[in-house]
């Protein structure tokens, strides 16, 4: 069974890991590599970096994954988002739930390629991943990407056993980036080095942090400041914002899954029946012809 592409979005990723059975975490999007942005969302358990894959060789040395470091080869197309997420989660001591704990236990002694196959063959993981598939108006045969296509890839950065690792399922092993005394600084340096390899006009990057559920942090903070009414009111206001954010994520994910094709088809039929469709199409074509050609940036999802 094939795997769908998954949008790089904090609400999508958070619901995805909850479907895996993971609790107490969420994803947040980071818009810079500045210290204050990372401090604002602490604690950070790992990073997921999305970039445009160019196919250029990477001569950095990889090694066999040390004991206690989970590394899996990506064995299936379109699974790189879930692969990167698992690369972080399975290298933490978080409450992962039955599905991921069983995967970690089962694959502990397997080589990276067999671990990748274990992920591919996990019905629970594949079902959760594919729950974010988008309804398509037409079914087309899949083919290899061409040189004109934008192909994006996810990699993970995580501290483990005193070292910082870059985990990329397309490589043969992890890249050891150095000591984890200040692991975020080490990871940021590696991410910045990758960004610098692209042209200055390239902006199609996305960085996600796996962090503690903000609601849990605020609940703990509320308990500590219960005797300070003003501070408690501020914390409760922040908690309400987090609740609203989660509700918004839920609604956005419902809309992502909804099939709007019948609505669009019926709308076009109504326009045609009222002799308005051809006029609208002609006006749109004329407006497009009068607009200077541009090279719009594609989405980083």
Strand order of the largest sheet: 1-6-2-3-4-5
How many domain regions?
2
What name goes with the CATH superfamily of the largest domain? Answer: Peptidase C12, ubiquitin carboxyl-terminal hydrolase
Strand content: 5-15%
What's the end-to-end separation, in Å? 22 Å
CATH class of the largest domain, named: Alpha Beta
Q: How helix-rich are the residues, as a percent range?
A: 40-55%
The CATH topology of the largest domain is given as Ubiquitin C-terminal Hydrolase UCH-l3
Known CATH architecture of the largest domain: 3-Layer(aba) Sandwich
User: Which regions have little confidence, pLDDT < 50, spanning 5+ residues?
Assistant: 139-149, 294-301
Cα-atom radius of gyration: 22 Å
The major beta sheet can be summarized as: 6 strands, antiparallel
The helix/strand class is alpha+beta
Mean pLDDT: 89
Shape: globular
Task: Please give the count of helices.
Answer: 11
N-to-C series of helices and strands: HEHEHHHHEEEHEHHHH
Number of strands: 6
């Amino acid at each position: 069974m094939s795997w769908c592409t998954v949008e790089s979005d904090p609400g999508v990723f958070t619901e995805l890991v909850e479907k895996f059975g993971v609790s107490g975490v969420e994803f947040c999007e980071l818009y810079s590599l500045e210290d204050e942005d990372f401090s604002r969302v602490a604690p950070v358990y790992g990073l997921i970096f999305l970039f445009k894959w160019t196919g250029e060789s990477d001569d950095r040395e990889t090694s066999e994954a040390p004991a206690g470091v989970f590394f899996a080869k990506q064995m299936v197309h379109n699974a790189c988002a879930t692969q990167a997420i698992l690369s972080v989660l399975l290298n933490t001591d978080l409450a992962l739930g039955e599905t991921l704990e069983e995967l970690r236990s089962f694959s502990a002694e397997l080589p990276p390629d067999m671990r990748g196959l274990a992920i591919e063959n996990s019905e629970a993981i594949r079902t959760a991943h594919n729950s974010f598939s988008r309804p398509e108006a037409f079914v087309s045969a899949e083919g290899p990407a061409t040189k004109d296509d934008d192909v994006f890839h996810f990699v993970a950065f995580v501290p483990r056993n005193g070292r910082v690792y870059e985990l990329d399922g397309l490589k043969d092993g992890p890249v050891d980036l150095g000591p984890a005394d200040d692991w975020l600084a080490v990871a940021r340096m590696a991410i910045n080095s990758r960004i610098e390899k692209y042209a200055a006009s390239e902006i199609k990057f996305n960085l996600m942090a796996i962090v503690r559920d903000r609601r849990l942090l605020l609940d703990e903070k509320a308990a500590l400041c219960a005797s300070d009414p003003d501070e408690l009111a501020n914390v409760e206001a922040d908690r309400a914002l987090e609740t609203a954010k989660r509700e918004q994520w839920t609604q956005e994910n419902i809309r992502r899954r909804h099939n709007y094709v019948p609505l669009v088809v019926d709308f076009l039929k109504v326009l045609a029946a009222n002799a308005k469709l051809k006029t609208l199409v002609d006006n749109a074509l004329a407006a497009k012809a009068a607009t200077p050609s541009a090279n719009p940036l594609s989405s980083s999802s």
